[in-house]
Design a protein that fits this description.
24% of the residues lie in helices and 29% in strands.
Amino acid sequence: MIVPFTAHTEHHLFEHPPTGGYDMQFRLVLRGNLPPSKSGTVDAKHRIRSELHPQLKTLWQQDENLKEWFMPPPIGSERDELRARADEYERYGFRFVPLVTLVEAGGCSLDILMLRRQDPNKLFTGAGDLDARVKTLLDALRMPNQRSELGGATPTPDEDPFYVLLEDDRLIHELTITTDRLLVPPLPGEPERDIIAIINVKTRTFSAQLGHFLDGR
């Protein structure tokens, strides 16, 4: 008997997104191990941060409004906005640049498609397994809360500053997760357990500072 596999979707609304503000939408892609338990998750979370860092850096450099932050300061001004942002969020030897922050009263909606190679009936061992994997991913989207979350890592030259999506995961106001089977064969040396996640991000930022650049979005 062939049992067809049906994609599974869960939707969580933590709070209604505030009206108004400035909208951005983009996608992040993750490929690799996403452990479901505390064992090994410290290294996994920072590996995910490191994988998403260049994608977010590219967003800041290429987005028509965000790339304004990379322009030289006006003549007569010594303030470099991007440098100032990184200095403000310096933690544990890293200078982070979060896109969505608490002080700017922002918000974030995530729609995650998670693909994994498994038998149809063994894609996840249960709701707890899925929840634990998603928790690992969500923790990796934010700045670390304590030094131990970095697993002893130090920034490389290309990671100064270090781009992250969120200052804090409390900024996630809506979460949709769809799980499905990954049909792409693994690359040479790639473990069978590795996943591909496509993260559709919608952000709202209410800072006057960011609003100046995102006006019209």
